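Work Package 3 (structural annotation) set out to generate three-dimensional models for the target panel prioritized at the project kickoff. During this period the team completed the workflow that converts sequence records into C-alpha cells, so that structures can be stored uniformly alongside our sequence database. As a representative example, we reproduce one entry of 144 residues exactly as it appears in the project archive.
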Amino acid sequence: MFGFLIALLSGALMSIQGVFNTEVTKQTSLWVSTGWVQLTALAVCVAAWFFTGRESITAIFQVEHKYTLLGGVIGAFITVTVIQSMSALGPAKSVMLIVISQLAVAYLIELFGLFGADKQPFEWRKLIGMLISIVGIIIFKWQK
C-alpha cells in the first residue's frame, strides 16, 4: 500500500513540477530554468544527506555499472522535454503521453531484462492494457 501511495504522490509532484518549470521557462529560458531545477534538487539532496545517515559520498565511485551514473544527465533532459511538451500540448495531454511512454519503455526494460532489471515474460494483458491507454489518449484528445 505504501508503494502505491508513493507512486501516486510521485505522479502528482511530477505534474505540478512540470507546470512550475514551464512557467519559470516562460519568464527566463529553457536552460536557465532547467539549471535552476537541477541546482535546487542538489541543494535539497545535500541538506537531506546532512540531516540523515551521511553515507560515504565516495561510494558513488564504487557503483558497478558506470552507465547508471547518467541518471542526473537524463534528469536534466527529462526536465527539458517535460517543459517543452507542456508548453506545446498543455499539462494534461503532455502528462498522458509521458505516462504512456514511461509505461511502454518500462515494459520493454522488463521484457528484455535491460539495465539489470529482472526479465519478465511477455503477457498479452499488458500489451492490451497499453493499447487501451493509447485509445484513452485519443479519446481525451478528440475534438468535434
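The two ends are 40 Å apart (CA to CA).
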